[in-house]
Amino acid sequence: MFVRSDHRMTLLKFTLIIITFLCAMTVKYTLKAQEFSLGLKAGPLLSRSVIADKFDRKDFSQRNKPGFMAAGLIIFPLKNNYSFETEVGYSQRGRKILSNADTWTNVATYNYADASMLLRKSFQIRIIKNVPTQWFVNLGPNISYWIGGRGEIGSGSLQSYDIVFGPMPQEPPQPDFDKMYFTDVNRWLFGINIGAGLITPLRRSHRLLTELRFTSGHTFYGKPASASWRTLGFSDNLRANEKVLSLTVAYLFDIDLKESRKGKSTQDKDVHRKPIRKKH
User: 280 lies in a domain?
Assistant: First the structure.
């Protein structure tokens, strides 16, 4: 079972690399470099961890964990109503796990630096008269770097802790019940984004983009015994990946360099134009 799962993970990572390469090649040869949109996006999300092996799942109950994300983005228009989007941002995701017959609760918040690339197809839709609205679908790879995190764990009253990437020391210099140690974890996490949404104009060169997105994580956090905490009865399993549902709103600024240069050129001509001498 472990061999089959590892083989599946290798195949998924290879698929993500291929998708990334195709997106890059598409942009290189077909994007209109004179036009693009810049924007900022933010919104809430729900994340849920899924333990890989079904025989281990019976020992844990998994719950949704609320969080949020924010990012900057750039969108390049392509041909035939396609566009390419790149995002770089930050998110708070995490896990809520119940163990020991649901008597123990572990609520963890993880901090990530995120990057994603999306190939988007847009379609015209009429919702309000004289408002040129578009709906779209998009698909692309997602990469997250695990910065760190914190959480609360216990039975009854909860103990706060910070995550430490490294082995748990045998003899700590002082009590370390406020630390949870993670070893053999994957801090680079890969996934696939699938989303749909609406783009509505606000005023000239300004648009609003609303998107509902599902991110399917394919990299495991770590191994079954990657998490250590200095308390008897502690149990966790990091051989799990995450599924994330987010709802975000982005404010877009459309930029046309060709039109900007044309306007500047016209102004320069007006400045350097010789005055007409009147005949007396």
Answer: no
What's the pLDDT score for residue 106? 93
Residue 253 CA to its chain's centroid (Å): 21
Distance CA 202, CA 62 (A): 41
pTM of the full predicted structure? 0.81
Beta bridge partners of 95: 108
- For the cut 80, the answer to whether the pLDDT of residue 50 exceeds it is yes
Closest alpha carbon to 80 in 32, 152, 36, 131 = 32
In one letter, which amino acid is 119? L
Distance CA 50, CA 37 (A): 36
The number of helices, as runs of H, and strands, as runs of E, in the chain is 3, 12
Exposure b/e, 8-17, CB count within 10 A at least 16 = b = ebeebeeebe
Is 273 inside a domain boundary?
no
Domain that residue 117 falls in: 2-267
Max alpha carbon distance in the chain (Å)?
105
CB 44, CB 246: distance < 8 Å: yes
- pLDDT tens profile 170-226: 888 888 899 999 999 999 999 999 999 999 998 888 999 999 999 999 999 999 999
**φ, ψ (nearest 5 deg) of residue 25:** -65, -35
Specify if 275 maps to a domain.
Answer: no
Amino acid, res. 115: A
Q: What is the CATH number of the domain that holds 93?
A: 2.40.160.20
Say what the pLDDT of residue 30 is: 47
Contact 65, 107 (CB under 8 A): yes
The residues, any chain, with a CB within 8 Å of residue 8's CB and separated by 6 or more, are: none
